[in-house]
Amino acid sequence: MHSRTSTALLVGALGLAHGLDTSRVPRPDLGTVPYGVNVDRCTVPGKAAITFDDGPDVYTKELLDILGRNGVKATFFLCGDNGRFGRPTIADPSGPYPDLVKRMYREGHQIASHSWGHLNFTTISSDERAEQLLKLESAFVDILGFFPTYFRPPFTSFEGTEGDLAHWGYHNINFDLDTNDFNELYDQSRATVKSALAQKGPSGSSFITLLHEIHELSVTEFLQFVIDEARKYNYEFVTVGECLGDPVNNWYRDPASGGPWGGPAAPPVIKATITSSSSTSSSESVSSTTSASKPKFSESTKSNSTTTAGPGVTTVTSSTTTQAPKTATPAATTTPAPNPNAAGRAEGRPTTFVFLCPFFLLRPGLMIGNWGHTPLLLPLLTRERPDRKSSRYCCNDGYHTSHHLNPRRHWRHHPVSFLQQKETYATEKALVFHNIDYLMITIKLLQKDYLHLGKCLVPLGEQIPLSLEDRATMLRRHTRRFSEAEICQKFKVLASKSS
C-alpha cells in the first residue's frame, strides 16, 4: 500500500481525459458499514438487493425500463471501460452512457464502482489498483459530480487487496446469492434462485444477488423471473446501501470535502444560466455547466442579478446594459451563390471504392463461406437450448452455434461461452476447427482434402482417440449425400408428405 502523496505523482500516468484528480480527496469513514473487509450479506432482514456487474452496456436502457415497470431499485457496479470492442467509455460525451448513468441516479438506483478496466485486483500492483479506482472516480465526477464509496472487485477477487480498498475509502461488496447467469445456462440459474428462496424467509433473512447486465437474456428474461420469484416470498427490493442500513448520503463522496454527498435530492452538477439583454436590441442567452465555481462577470458590466439557490443548484439571471462597439464596415466582397444541388450529393469514386467494392467483395465471400461449412455440418443438426424463446435447428460448430444462440453477444465472449459449455458441445458431437476459416473450409471441401481438415479439427469427446485418418474418414462421411428417408427422419416429416 502507498500514501496518497505518492499516488498523486502517478496521476500524470493515469490517462485522465477529463475530470477532477481525486487522488488527494480526504477519505474519512462514513457511517458504520466496514471498509476494506468482505461484505456479502445484508444486515436488514426482509430485503432483496439485486446487483448488476460489468455495465453500462447495450442492454442497460432496457434494464432500467424493466426495473421501472416493476418498481424495483437496484445497485449497479459500473466499469469505465469493460473491454467490449468498439464501445465508448463510460464518460465519453459522444456515447450513450453518461445519460444512462444519470438516469440510474435520477431513478433512485445505487451507483457503485467495479473498477475502470475490469482487471483482476489480485494480479495487479497496488499502484495499478489505485489507477483503476481513481480513473473511474474521475469519470463519475465528470458525469455526476461525486463518486461512490461502494466497490465490487472484478471477478470478486479481493484477497490481499483489503488494505488498498480501506485506504481509498471503499466498502468491498460481495454477494450471497450467485445466479451464475454469466454461464447463460438459465434453467440452472432459475433452479438456484428457487432453491435459495425456498430455504429462506423474508422475516429472518435477506440477500444480495448477482446478475450481469451485459448478457441479453439476463436482462430481457431472467431478471423478471428473479423479481417475480422474490415477490412470492414478500421480499422488499432495495439497494445494497439500504439493505446494510447505510444512509443514502454515505453512498457517495463529495470530491471537494471528502465527506458524504448531499443526497439523492442534489443534482449531479451545478448549473448556471445567464441571460443578458443588450441596448442594441439583441439578446444573448448563455448556458454553462460547472462543478467548481459560479460564473464570473466583468467589472465594467452593470447588472442587476437575482440568485436563487437550491440544494446544489445556482441560477443567476442578469440584465445588462452595454454600448455596442463601433466597428469598421468591411469592403464589399462578392461570394458565389451556393449550388443547391451539391448538398447531399454522393461523390462517385469515393463511394465506389470505399463502400461499394468492399461490400460486393465481402458479401460473396460470406455466402461462399456459409455454403462451405453448411454441408459439412448438416449431419450434426441439434436443437437450441430449451430456455430460448425460439427452438430452430442450427449448425453445431462452436462459434456459429454461439452466435445464433445469442446474436447480440459480443464477439470476444463467444470463445468464453464455448469453453464454459465445452462438455455440452462434446456430448452433441460438435465439430470445432482452428487455424482455418470458412472460405478455406469451402476450398478444401471442393478439393476433397479431408486430411487437411482433419489436421485443423479440435477433437472433443468421442473424437479425442481418433487418428488423423479416422478424423478424415469421419469428415468425409459427414459430406455424403442424404437419402430421402434420412431427410424425413431428421426433420420428422412423413415420407408420404415429402413426396
TrEMBL record:
Residues 273-293, 306-343 have a biased composition (Low complexity). Residues 46-238 form the NodB homology domain. CDD domains: CE4_ClCDA_like. GO terms for molecular function: hydrolase activity, acting on carbon-nitrogen (but not peptide) bonds; metal ion binding. Pfam families: Polysacc_deac_1 (PF01522). One of its GO terms (biological process) is carbohydrate metabolic process. Coiled coil: none annotated. It comes from the Eukaryota. Residues 1-19 form the signal peptide. Its cofactor is Co(2+). The keyword Metal-binding applies. Keywords: Carbohydrate metabolism, Cobalt, Hydrolase, Metal-binding, Signal. Residues 259-347 are annotated as: Disordered. The keyword Translocase does not apply. PANTHER family: CHITIN DEACETYLASE, CHITIN DEACETYLASE-RELATED. This is NodB homology domain-containing protein.
